[in-house]
Amino acid sequence: MPKTGLNLTNIQVTQSQQALHQQGQQLRQQVSFAQLGRFVPQQRDPTLLMSRIADMLVPELLPERYRRMGVSSFTFFRGTAELMAYDLNHQASTHIPVVISGDAHLGNFGFFASPERRLVFDLNDFDEAGVNSWERDVKRLLVSVSLAGQENGFSAKKIHKAVRHVAKSYRKGIHFSCQRSTLDRFYPANDVESVLSAAPTSPARSLMQTFIDKAQKRNSEQVVNKFTSLTAHGRRFIDNAKITRHTDDDVTRHISDYLAAYRTTVRSDVALLLSQYELTDVARHCVGVGSFGSRCYLVLLTSNDGSHLVLQIKEALPTRKTGAERQLNLSATFEESEGQRIIESQKILQSASDPFLGYFQSRHHSFYVRQFRDMKTSVDLHSLNWQQFHLYAEACGRLLAIDHCQTPTAPMIDGYIDNDKDFDLAMTQWAEAYVPQVEADYAAFLKEHPNH
């Protein structure tokens, strides 16, 4: 039988929601808040773990990747999910399985368009997604709140308050969602209108409107105007050595075949829509921090009416949870179905997903495909004042809870937490204890890469 991208066997339930809730309550007798909130440092070599991930990436892109990671402890944290994944594997855990993001830091939430062309706010990165224990996402989010708060220059007292309030918003979000019916949980209200209605009439609301206005201007034609030019050979992507360049590799040489394979993984209506487009150009295009250095591409498609569609192809690497802890075997077998895993996780976690989501397998790697910059934008964390940062972080905590409640086992989380505010303190203690570990790893990285 062919492999499937996401194994959902251990999150399908037969018990009632009440029984699941009781199981969660009983679990707290085995794994207390105190145990869950105690960080246990590990004896490990961060350079070795990072090098095993680097071995999977494009060598010529590593200097720019390291430069981006070296900007601050927060950008380093964003680019080294493998380190925290390793540490989380050796911490106390409830082992309540849900579909998790795997990398739920503050920078991985943002705005994007629903299939109905409504702007929604939700998680927007799923490279590390899969079935795992829910608290992994919570801890990564809380650590990111602390690191981003430090980068913004907020006081330790304010950062502590923010971290604790984000844990509270997650707790309240779980409890609220589990009071709703199964079908209501499946249709969460993550559209911008709902988010705005919950925001106070303050600078936070006006700032959110700024990002909304920016998102609404981002579409394929805007990408064409910014990233392409008209040449003697037709419209082509503009080469930029660090970000965008035309390459001669397996993907670009066989792009027509791979796009055909991708079209078999999308809905029939989307496949029919894509049949009206012809391939115009393809170029390697790398952005971000965590995924910079992997094999990513932009594909320019032109319709029979002269309009354009820009697709983004991203390499689907094995999750850092496994990738950094084993001797890597870079074969097609190792990466098989990783693209499918990411797409299926995204469709489960997001309240609405890009209709162009799909995947394909190349000769040596797995990839997933999505529309590029279709009303997509992230919040510029550096531009936020204290009040805005605090409110944004709380919103992310609540959204994470809502997304976790797409999994049938979520009532066990509700039972385990039991809307107990002691949970907030325990999670805050773990996050604050982990920040020095990130800073130590960052110092080791700067020592290893002094020129970046």
UniProtKB/TrEMBL annotation:
Any Pfam family the entry gives: DUF2252
Superkingdom, natural source: Bacteria
InterPro entries, sorted: DUF2252 (IPR018721)
Protein's name according to its UniProt entry: DUF2252 domain-containing protein
Organism phylogeny: Bacteria, Bacillati, Bacillota, Bacilli, Lactobacillales
